[in-house]
Amino acid sequence: MGKAAVAGLGLGLASSTLSFGAPSVKRNKSVGIIGLDTSHSIAFAKAFNASDAASDLGGYKVVAAYPHGSKDIKTSVERIPGYIEEVKKLGVEIVDSIASLLDKVDVVLLETNDGRLHLEQALEVFKSGKTVFIDKPIAASLPDAIAIFAAAEKYNVPVFSSSSLRFMENAVAVRNGEIGEVFGADAFSPAKYEVTHPDLFWYGIHGVETLYSLMGAGCKTVQRTYTEGADVVVGTWEGGKIGTFRGTRSGKGGYGGKAFGETGILDMGGYGGYRPLLVEIAKFFDTGISPVSKEETIEIFAFMQAADESKKMNGRSVSLEAVLAKGKRDALKIKI
Q1: Any bridge partners for residue 130, and if so which?
Q2: Which domains, from first to last, does the chain contain?
């Protein structure tokens, strides 16, 4: 399939979702975690394994974890020993390989903090046929992100990736038409850097995903203004709609945004935590249908890559279509 799979992802920005048909009903809803180098692994395991877990978490339980995520991001590597002990207390078995994990579970949470490892790890999961959620960032490059979706299609495996910020209550309300057609939006989040990842891929993705949850796909051009303390990225969508992302690296951090619509202006309010995302993950595990289209997820990464290109050109406007086209060409070189 190779090149055809990647080419089939296209540059289209329709709101299709990845659907591979509902998986067969499972008597055991066992979850495996790949990567204990992020606090998400602990938070997700605690939520799914709680004795009083709500029914909308689907009855899924984390039963096994392969701990080794990042190999050289110090802040991630140092977490692993402590997180191993934490998940053991939740009844989670620690295994020595992804292959061993896959023998014990029905579905997978790929939580490795290091996006550079996601394609390699996801391929092993895809080849097993297990449905998988891939935590942010889905990859550490646009070509890898495109290749992950191509591989999911090649192996006919459901995949879903998202920041939890997408599922803030008011963001969902905007998508459901609370203020009619959206003509613009502003979003913000911390945007600290990690040298192994493109600037916004590591943490700014939270705010960029918020922006996309309000605006949807269809951005045409991107311009970035950069200082050491902050970034402001302005995207122009079809019809002259404007969306902005502010990434902060100094002063008090936070998450949020505002949508400007046909019938009102709605503030996103405060961040509500992981639970709404976990509910969506449980639904996804049950149905095999992602709540976020592959086109939109890929465009989020193209937006962040275009922001990097704009930074290199001192804030000049960058065509998203051109960035996507190059990403596709580079993805064709990746063996899946």
Answers
A1: none
A2: 2-164+275-292 (3.40.50.720), 165-272+302-328 (3.30.360.10)
Short-list 329, 15, 282, CA closest to 133: 282
Q: Token digits for 208?
A: 């960029």
Strand order across the 219-226 sheet: 265-267, 256-261, 182-190, 242-248, 230-237, 219-226, 318-319
User: H helices of the chain, where?
Assistant: 2-7, 39-49, 74-77, 80-88, 98-102, 118-128, 142-154, 169-175, 205-215, 275-287, 294-312, 320-331
**Contact (Cβ atoms closer than 8 angstroms) between residue 231 and residue 240:** no
pLDDT in tens, 245-298: 999 999 999 999 999 999 999 999 988 899 999 999 999 999 999 999 999 999
pTM assigned to the model: 0.91
Distance between CA atoms of 220 and 243, rounded to whole angstroms? Answer: 11
Rg (CA), the chain: 19
Let me know how long the chain is. 336
Q: How far apart are CA 249 and CA 252, in angstroms?
A: 9
